[in-house]
């Protein structure tokens, strides 16, 4: 049996504490350090989860020597610096979503991963629901998808920064559904037309609702219809999904086992397999990838596309016109080169003959 992977976690806030519990439940990993700018907070969080003997510090540099990998659970604005620092120490990184706040920064993180030769993976937790994976298997068995739709309607009162954002739904939430659509369709997005708006009763300052239509390379259309100010008859946090194919239709309410009605009229309820879910699933895949060298499904080169879907949707809503994903990536690549602070990162970005080929689009 392999020795547990020694993890250094960065971030001791609310999500950081969820990850401490996640790490404690996985026998394949062991926490060897906790980093947070607020060292007292880190000490408190570690003690609360039974890590009284685990050292805490204000920087990765202080504890990197005793770790095999880093889990980045900081705020999105800190992801580029935290992940790049860890990679610079030769440590693979599992980062909470989003990879970064912009495609430009995300591409710089791709370069940092390439330079280090170490894995940078994003925890897209919606990819690890048992029912969602069963839904993906049902769709694959039905054949080519003509249309995939997701309805997302919730009425949360977060308070704080989300209610002040210009595009709270698209930027803070929709990446989950956009990323999952890529997995379910099995192809990559080409373009998007999006309209975002704010209903008159909304308690958000910015646009808390949006409708987006993505065209995928294989001809599939993905339609997202969502709102964060929709009290009553709310959907699952995963959304409510429907996939239409020539062989029948698959439906998932976001929580329970998905169902299929075949073209013959026969109804089939999916069987769920026993597998780790949500952040436990992403941690399990990360550990397996570090040990085997396999490429996980949310490896940094691939995950940039999900970030680009969000950025393209925001641009489309602002312009009132469709936006091509390739155009977003091409512009961001030029910006990433221009703004790169590390000369090695800049040289790596400049060495890419074509950003789309580098990302295997």
Which percent bin holds the helix content? Answer: 25-40%
How much is the average pLDDT? Answer: 95
> In angstroms, what separates the terminal alpha carbons?
38 Å
CATH topology of the largest domain: Rossmann fold
What this model shows, in words?
This protein is α/β, with parallel strands linked by helices. It folds into two domains: 5-126 and 278-298 and 332-358, NAD(P)-binding Rossmann-like Domain (Rossmann fold, 3-Layer(aba) Sandwich), CATH 3.40.50; 130-269, Dihydrodipicolinate Reductase, domain 2 (2-Layer Sandwich). 39% of the residues lie in helices and 22% in strands. The protein is built from eleven helices and 15 strands. It has a nine-stranded mixed beta sheet. Helix 3 (79-88) links the parallel strand 4 (69-72) and strand 5 (93-96). The radius of gyration is 21 Å and the shape is globular.
Can you describe this structure in just a few lines?
The protein is an alpha/beta fold and 361 residues long.
Task: Provide the fold topology.
Blueprint: E1 5-10, H1 14-25, E2 29-35, H2 39-48, E3 56-57, E4 69-72, H3 79-88, E5 93-96, H4 103-116, E6 120-123, H5 130-142, E7 145-153, H6 168-185, E8 189-197, E9 209-216, E10 221-227, E11 240-245, E12 248-252, E13 259-262, E14 267-269, H7 278-292, H8 300-319, E15 323-324, H9 325-339, H10 343-351, H11 355-358
Parallel strand pairs: 1-2, 1-4, 2-3, 4-5, 5-6, 7-10
Antiparallel strand pairs: 7-11, 8-9, 8-15, 9-10, 11-12, 12-13, 13-14
Helix pairs in contact: 3-4, 4-8, 4-9, 4-10, 6-8, 9-10
């Amino acid at each position: 049996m392999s020795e547990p992977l020694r993890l250094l976690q960065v971030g001791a806030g609310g999500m950081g504490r969820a990850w401490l519990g996640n790490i404690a439940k996985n026998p394949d990993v062991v926490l060897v350090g906790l980093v947070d700018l607020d060292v007292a907070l880190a000490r408190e969080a570690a003690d609360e989860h039974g890590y009284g003997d685990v050292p805490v510090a204000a920087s990765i540099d202080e504890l990197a020597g005793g770790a095999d990998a880093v889990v980045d659970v900081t705020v999105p604005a800190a992801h580029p610096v935290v992940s790049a620092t860890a990679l610079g120490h030769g440590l693979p990184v599992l980062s909470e979503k989003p990879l970064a706040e912009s495609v430009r920064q995300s591409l710089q993180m791709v370069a940092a991963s390439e330079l280090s030769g170490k894995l940078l993976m994003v925890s897209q937790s919606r990819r690890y629901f048992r029912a969602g994976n069963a839904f993906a298997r049902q769709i694959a068995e039905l054949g080519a998808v003509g249309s995939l739709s997701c309805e997302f309607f919730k009425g949360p009162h977060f308070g704080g920064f989300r209610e002040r954002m210009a595009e709270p739904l698209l930027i803070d939430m929709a990446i989950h559904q956009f990323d999952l659509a890529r997995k379910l369709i099995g192809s990559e997005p080409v373009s998007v037309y999006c309209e975002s708006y704010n209903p008159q009763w909304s308690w958000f300052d910015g646009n808390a609702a949006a409708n987006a239509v993505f065209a995928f390379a294989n001809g599939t259309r993905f339609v997202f219809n969502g709102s964060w100010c929709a009290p009553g008859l709310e959907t699952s946090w995963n959304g409510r999904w429907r996939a239409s194919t020539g062989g029948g239709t698959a439906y998932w309410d976001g929580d329970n086992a998905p169902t299929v009605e075949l073209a013959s009229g026969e109804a089939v309820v999916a069987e769920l397999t026993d597998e780790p879910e949500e952040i436990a699933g992403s941690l399990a895949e990360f550990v397996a990838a570090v040990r085997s060298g396999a490429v996980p499904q949310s490896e940094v080169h691939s995950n940039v596309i999900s970030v680009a879907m969000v950025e393209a949707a925001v641009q489309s809503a602002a312009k009132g016109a469709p936006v091509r994903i390739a155009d977003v990536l091409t512009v961001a690549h030029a910006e990433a080169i221009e703004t790169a602070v590390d000369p090695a990162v800049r040289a790596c970005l400049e060495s890419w003959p074509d950003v789309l080929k580098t990302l295997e689009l």
